Amino acid sequence: MAHKELDLRERRRIEDLLNAKLPVSSIAAEIGRHRSTVYREIKRNAFAADTDEVAYLDGYYGMVAQRKASHRRARRRKLIRLEDLREAVVDRLKAGWSPEQIAGRIRFEGLPVTVSHETIYAHVYGPEGRAEELARHLPSRRKKRRPRYARRPRNPVFPPERSIHQRPEYVKTRETFGEWEGDLMIFERAQGSMNVATLVERKTRFAVLFRNNDRSSTHFMNSLMNVMTPLPRAARKSITFDRGFEFRDWRKLEAGIGTTAWFCDPQAPWQKGSVESLNGRARRFLPRDTSLASLSRPQMKAISERLNATPRKCLGWRTPTEAFREEMVKLR
């Protein structure tokens, strides 16, 4: 579940349950939150009187807590309040600077207001930054970003045991059939969240392309399973991705159709060279300004068939279609 801050309804409920003398663990269970979340909320947002004369008012009040939390968020959002600073940061992001470079340069220039790279990242991945799609200007793009000093999750999205370095050697040497690579081809901003998913079987270079209307990982994995399920289990043993956020739901792929997922090192797309090569060849038919909404399923199939009908030197001048069919016959 994605992180979600407490809202006013929950804070009022905490106030009522505290007045009823319930322990924090019971309050947490009542509102469906972890007890540490409730402990932290009470500690940070409780009211403390300025003078001893009104010390009897000390305590937790839902409305007061909501106001304190809102003010704290507003203080953090320096790039929302200061337009000139925001424009300077955004201009440099678009110029290809990293948040660290931007923050360091602002300090070097001695400007009256500085900003940390963490604040820049928070803005990029916040509601306003997402609306402007600022993340696409970062040197390394992620869907979300955890603060630098936050605890690492106990169940990492891409665990070490799924690293490409743990992938069996026979996959690397293309000895076995049914080992795939997958990627997404991204298009101009006008296409919105639409993209094209590209798959290639490593031994036969057989390509599958399909339009993907949403970049969410859940949507992509559902579409991928629909495409791969008709194949025999032995023809879809594994698939190698990079570490893009579109592939974070890989466990669904393994649980759903039994296809093992492997992942390249961070910022190392060349480790899945077959699909990168496919993307380059597919760009001849799908340039970045392609109107994806007008691409029909038969048109996508025709592009795949054209790619698969081209003789390949690495296949002894057979076509990927011919090589793929030979391997499928062996599975019967």
Automatic annotation (TrEMBL):
Span list, region Disordered: 138-162
Keyword Oxidoreductase attributed: no
Record field: transmembrane: none
InterPro entries (alphabetical): Integrase_cat-core (IPR001584), IS30-like_HTH (IPR025246), RNaseH-like_sf (IPR012337), RNaseH_sf (IPR036397), Transposase-Integrase (IPR051917), Transposase_IS30-like (IPR053392)
Full protein name: IS30 family transposase
Domain Integrase catalytic: start-end pairs: 164-328
Pfam families: HTH_38
Originating organism: Salipiger mangrovisoli
Record's compositionally biased regions (Basic residues): 138-154
Cross-referenced SUPFAM superfamilies: Ribonuclease H-like
Keyword terms, alphabetized: DNA recombination
